[in-house]
Amino acid sequence: MTLEGEGRPKDALRLFEQAWDIATDDYELFTAAHYVARQQADIVGKLKWDETALSYALKIPNEDANSTLPSLYLNVAKSHEDLKDFEKARINYLLALDFENYLPNDGYGIMIKAGIQNGIERVKI
Could you tell me the CA-to-CA distances from 15 to 31, 44, 87, 109 in Å, in that order? Predict the structure, then answer.
C-alpha cells in the first residue's frame, strides 16, 4: 500500500502478486486478489481479479468477510457497468445492497453506501 501511495503501481502490483503466489488460505487469497485488482490497467483485468477476490471472500467462514462484501460487489458491479453489461451490473449492485448492513457507520461505510445507491440509479432497467 505504501508503494501504491507513492505512485509506484508497478512495484505495488509486483508485491501484491507475490502475496497471491504465497497465500495459504481463503482470507489471504481474497486479500491479495483484491489488491491485485486495484492495479489492473483495464476493466476486464480488474473485473477478473475483483470476481476472484469476491469468490474467496464468500468462502471465508463465520461471516468474517461480510463487511468487505458490499465493496467487492460494488467493484464487480462498476466493472460490469463500465463494460456496458447493465443487467450484471444491476444484479451486483443489488447484492452489494444486501450486505450494506455490515458496513461500518463511518466515512468508509458512507462512501460505499453512496456508491451502491448511485450505481443502482445509473443502471435502472
Answer: 12, 21, 34, 27
Q: Are 85 and 59 in contact (CB under 8 A)?
A: no
pLDDT digit string, tens, across residues 22-64:
999 999 999 999 999 999 999 999 999 999 999 999 999 878 7
Of 77, 123, 82, the closest CA to residue 100 belongs to 77
Instruction: Provide the whole-model pTM.
Output: 0.90
- The answer to whether the beta carbons of residues 32 and 20 sit under 8 Å apart is yes
- Exposed / middle / buried, residue 39 (Cβ in 10 Å: 0-12, 13-18, 19+): buried
What's the pLDDT at 125? 62
